Amino acid sequence: MAVQPQLDGASGPGKGFVNRFVLALFFLSLPGFGQDRAAEQARLAAAQSAFEAGHWDEAAQLSQGPAGQSSELDFLRGLALARLKKWEEATLALETGARKSPRDARFPVELAGIAYKQKDFPLAKKHLQMALRLSPRDAYTHEFLATIYFLEGNLEAAVKYWNRQQKPRLRSVRFSPSLQLSEPLRNRALGFNAPQVLTTGALHTAESRLNNLGIFTSRRMELTAAESGNYDLTVRLAERNLWGDSKVEGVISLLSGLAYTTVYPELYNLGHRAVNLTSLGRWDAQKRRVLVAASLPVYGDPRLRLRIFADARNENWNLSQTFFGAVTPLTDLKLRRIAAGTEFCDVVNGLWSWSAGAEAANRNIRNVNSGLSPAVRGVSTGGSSLAGWVGVQRTLLRVPERRFTLDSSIEARAGREFANALGPFATLRGSLDAHWFPRAKGDDFQMRGQIRAGATAGKASLDELFQLGVERDNDLWLRGHAGAMNGRKGAALLGRRYFLANWEMDKNVYGNGFFAVKLGPFLDHGAIADSSGFFGSRGWLWDSGLQGKVRILGGVKVVFSYGRSLRGGKGVFYGTVLRTP
Fold it and tell me: Using CA atoms, how far apart are residues 403 and 155, in angstroms rounded to an integer?
């Protein structure tokens, strides 16, 4: 099986067989055979001789004995029975020997070989992991594990175990289909080439840099065995150029928000240099918005990216359900905000990146109740502001064997509001984001869990407060709470401090070449508070419900959810389009 001695060609019973048989009978006839060490060693030698001659039946018979026989005889019997494809008997013999010699790594390796022959890859991997705990440096076990992960399509896990043997060495690297992205950019994004050894670090870094270019809706890397133990690597990327990967995709992307009076004019990979222009135009009577952004690699380096943006909003807010500081409900606040800024991102490697940015904004808030107390009047005060921020994104844990990742991020923001009622402010936000694919292949039953928290010190205007609720301009989703009332913002829970935990699972329901449908449950938990006491959630909240996702042509993702607060309240149905690839 997995460990195979050098064997002679199989032949029929002859003189050698007669001699071994007579020798075995002689020792079996000795008194006290079960306790006689010499007799057992002779029987082992006879069985080993039969095995090496290719006489599996004879080897299995000679190595069969009392329950107290040595583990070496159990091991040899397991090997012989495995050659005869008597899998259950072979497994029993090897498990018996493993109980006698629990520190012998050969037993789990051979059990893995039997599981592999029976196409039971999960069991084979379990045995091989046990073997590595007993013999961490064994080259064969590493190669065996890498091969199984390779066959399952888990490239990251396969490369992890191959790397311990200075494998896999690349014979060639190619893109399929061919890309319009300039050759220097794509080569620098990949960062490796033949005849290098492909490492997990290089693999992660290449994936992060390709994502940073912002022009690929999907990516996959495939290894194919080549001659002399080398491999050919094929990088499969779906590239967006101008309107998209195709005219159909471009039209779908442009009009994907038409149901909520929004269009997304976008141009990608201008000049074949990953220069992207993205925008949003919304003519909703309650939430007008225009957003324009341009991003490009800095100095032609795919790890460095600069984004410049401008954002203008004209929104109507209804705070009657979320603001408790006025006798007369604030039902018709009008917020106008114009902001412009820039952000720089540096992908250091496949494990972490950092970003920094700055923004200047001006806001005007009208229809404010003159009876508000001075303590809370600052929230509804207009004026200009300057802010800057720096953030770090770090992968804390990758377990490719389990297809599990744990990512983290932290962002510090500081600025100043120049209105008299306001002043300097600072915000700190952090998150933990876990992804798990429970199956060895594919993304069926994908699970995601996310924990986020944040706090603001100082006085901040209305649009700078955190919001918990489903709303298109807000990413802190508490899916049983609507973020708008009759189209007006302000229904989301507001405050300067929040905690939010989200969990969801996606079950593949349907898929073809045009679109794919996922469906699954979700559970949200959170709370929000404010130092003024006039905002907040008034306790911890639990929301649960069902969520569906439709991915069209690999790029546009439409999300539908129905959530309900477990503390009572109306159900919330919501639909939107996510723009991230």
Answer: 11
The confidence score (pLDDT) of residue 29 equals: 52
| 331: nearest Cα among 340, 339, 322 | 322
From CA 144, how far away is CA 48, in angstroms rounded?
A: 25
Pairing of strands 424-436, 446-458: antiparallel
Output the CA–CA distances (angstroms, integers) from residue 80 to 50, 90, 422, in the order listed: 10, 8, 83
Min mean pLDDT across 193-197, 425-429, 555-559 is at 555-559
CA distances from 387 to 84, 268, 405 (A): 74, 29, 32
CB 265 within 8 A of CB 271: no
Place of tokens 């029987």: 43
Locate 195 and state its tokens.
């005849």
What is the token pair recorded at 400? 């490719």
- Among 144, 143, 5, 16, smallest CA distance to 76 is for 5
pLDDT digits (tens, 9 = 90+) for 194-233: 899 999 999 999 999 999 999 998 889 999 988 888 999 9
Neighbours of 66 (CB within 10 A): 10
81: phi then psi, degrees, rounded to nearest 5: -65, -30
Q: Is the pLDDT of residue 7 over 50?
A: no
| Helical axes 106-117 vs 139-152, angle rounded to 10° | 20
- Phi and psi for 103 in degrees, rounded to 5? -100, 5
Best CA proximity match to 355, nearest among 412, 294, 398: 412
- 4: buried, middle or exposed (CB in 10 Å: 19+, 13-18, 0-12)? exposed
pLDDT, tens only, 109-146: 999 999 999 999 999 999 999 999 999 999 999 999 99
Q: What angle do CA 350, 352, 358 make, to 5 degrees?
A: 130
3-class DSSP state of 375: helix
CB atoms < 10 A from the CB of 209, how many? Answer: 25
